[in-house]
Structure formats: C-alpha cells, structure tokens
Amino acid sequence: MNTLLSYTRAIHLISVVSRRHYSDIENIPRALRSLKKKSSSHLARHFVDSFSIKVEAGSGGDGCISFLSAFAKENAGPDGGDGGNGGHVLLQATSNVNSLNHCQPVIRAASGEKGGHKDCSGKSASHVIVNVPIGTIVRDEYDNVVADLNKEGMTFVAARGGAGGRGNRFFTSSTEQAPSIAEYGAPGENFRYHLEVRSTAHAGLLGLPNAGKSTLLRAISRARPTVAPYPFTTLHPHIGMVPYDDYEQVAVADLPGLIPGSHLNRGLGIRFLQHVQRCRGLLYVIDASREDPWTQYDQLQYELEQFNVELLQRPTIVVANKIDLPEAKDQLPALKRELQKRKMHCVVPLSAKTGIGLGVLLRLLRDMYDGVLVKDNQSNSNEATDG
C-alpha cells in the first residue's frame, strides 16, 4: 500500500517538474477507453510505407468519319464527331488513409469513347484518383523526387490521358467539302513511380529494441502490433489512434527500434529514421529495468543528432517503462536525476503491461498535441499574412 502511495505522489509531481508548465493539466480532455474489440492480428493489414506502381493513362477516342444523309439529299455533308479524352491517373493526399497497403502495382485509367455520327462527340473517360497518405513522396524511375504530397488535398497528375481525335467534320474547308479523314486518339502517358510514406503521426514512440514500444501502443489504442521477447519484433511502423472525450484523436506511431549506428543505416537504419522526421512530437520509451537506463536516452539523442539535429528540438516526453519490475523501481530516482542533468524534466514512470501511469501519459500526450496545433495555426496564419 505504501509503495502504491509513493508512486502516486511521484506521478503527481511530474506536472511540477516537467519542462513545460502543466498547472492546468486537470483541464486537459481525458482519453476515452474504446468499447470496441481490439483488431485481430490475422485480419490487420500491415503498414506499407514503400511501394512501386506503374500508371497508365487512358488513350483518347478516335474521331469518326461519317456523312449525313438527309431527306431528299443523300450527301448532306460530313458529320463525324470527335473522340472523347482519356482519363488521367491522379495521386491525392488525404488523412483518410495512413498506408499504401491498398495500392495496386498497375493502375490504369479508361480510354475515351469514339466519336459518333450526327456530330456526336465520344464520352471522355473518368479520372482515376488514388488516395495516398499525407506525407507521401513520389519518385520517378530515375529516383528524382517529382512530388511531395504533404498537405490535405494536394494532387499530383501521375499520367495524363490522351486527347480525343477530331472527326471528319473538323476538316471541312472551302476546297474540301467531303473530307474522308479523321484523327486517331492520342495515346495516354505511362510511367513508373516509387511511393514512399513518411508517417505523419502526431507523436512517435522512439526507443531501443524491446523497450516496450509495441506494448505501450497496444495499451493506449486499438492497434495490435506484434509483441515478442526478441529484438526487432516491429519491422513495419504501426499507427494507433488515441481518442479523447472532446472528439479529438491523436495519432501515435510505433517505430522500429533504433540501435547504435542507425544513422549509418545499421539495423533497420535510415529508412525508419525518416519516419521520425514527420512525427510532431517524440516519446522516448526507456526500459527502466536495464542497467544505467539513462544511457538509452543518450544513445537515442545521439542517433537523432547525427541524422538531423533539428529533431532534438521537437516536443519530448520520456517514458520510463516497466516500472512494475523491482529493478526498475530501484533505478527510477537515479534515472530522474541523470535526466535532469540533461535538462529533461518530463519523465513519466509507467508500466505498459499493467497500466500503471498510463493516465498521466495520456494527459501529457494531449497537452503536447494541443501545443503542436497552436504552432501549426500560427504558422498557417503567418503564411496567409505573407501571401
């Protein structure tokens, strides 16, 4: 009983010693516990962050060669209509999807219809719109970046449809009253692209292998990343949504574990460090049961600094996980002292397995999210003023 009281007091003091002021923490909306069942692992679709596609736009319809036959006049002149235009293939960024697992390797748009007699034009084909996550980078077959879809609704024309051919009516002239020629429809474009998604989660779980990141994401959301007692259990990023009672949702990404030398592409390397760039805030998940747990924080800071020093300026919360273990309880005071020396005061002791301390983390997470929204609104207003 005394142990529980001591941890309750320790958690309560987080709001006082944190780097930011959380004096109004009680006013922060509370996270909701979803009544829905957890998603089944055998039904869950993996997060696909890299995918190659071939896009083929539709060809234009052929123009028509036709002559009007009117009453009492057999040859009343040409009346061949134009062909319809082929459909484009468009890539559009949307917040409704967060993965490329729905994409097909070959994406084709329909061709336009042929022109008809009596000056009837062929029907133009509809465009094919492929929804991709916000933060998708499009590279051509020569590895050049041709589009960065980093805002809601941004659209990239991946392949343009061919124009419809003109019918023989178009070629009527003073010297040629009955042309017997028409145009073929133009072929549509076709290209190969490589799509790369840098996750745009509001917060990313950063830590060494087996620090408990996946267990933490399972505890605070309906996501079901694989949990196992061996390194590199997480091979693909997973994103879970944390709902709050004011209908806001915070996206949290479980990123694969980093190891020393990740910035040199060791382990899962640079590919997943790139995901960190799109996370607005970072949650350092530290296994407090390991010897000298503060060295994990130093390793993570070093890898981020070597990859992109600007990542060290992101809003940060340190999660001291596995606090239910005796060795973690013993090392917690030393961990807090060492992190305070490094000017990191926001440390949340918790156990993702038992649920101890999750409530405090969720409130601090929401406060971080609200701070990010304020910065985004300020930057958007500044851009509007400059424009």
Automatic annotation (TrEMBL):
Fetch the SUPFAM superfamilies from UniProt: Obg GTP-binding protein N-terminal domain (SSF82051), P-loop containing nucleoside triphosphate hydrolases (SSF52540)
Q: Where are the transmembrane segments?
A: none
Q: Which Gene3D superfamilies match?
A: GTP1/OBG domain, P-loop containing nucleotide triphosphate hydrolases
Signal peptide range equals: none
**Ranges of residues in domain OBG-type G:** 201-370
Asked if the Swiss-Prot or TrEMBL record annotates the protein with the keyword Nucleotidyltransferase, the reply is no
| Tagged with keyword GTP-binding | yes
InterPro entries for this protein: G_OBG, GTP-bd, GTP-bd_Obg/CgtA, GTP1_OBG_dom, GTP1_OBG_dom_sf, OBG_GTPase, P-loop_NTPase, Small_GTP-bd
Taxonomically, which superkingdom? Eukaryota
In Pfam terms, one family for this protein is MMR_HSR1
Which biological process, per GO, is one annotated for this protein? ribosome biogenesis
Name the GO cellular-component terms: mitochondrion
- Cite the GO molecular-function annotations of the record: GTP binding; GTPase activity; magnesium ion binding
Taking every annotated instance into account, which residue ranges of this chain make up the domain Obg?
A: 45-200
Alphabetically list the UniProt keywords. Answer: GTP-binding, Nucleotide-binding, Ribosome biogenesis
Report the family membership: Belongs to the TRAFAC class OBG-HflX-like GTPase superfamily. OBG GTPase family.
This one is known as Mitochondrial ribosome-associated GTPase 2
Q: Which gene encodes it?
A: MTG2
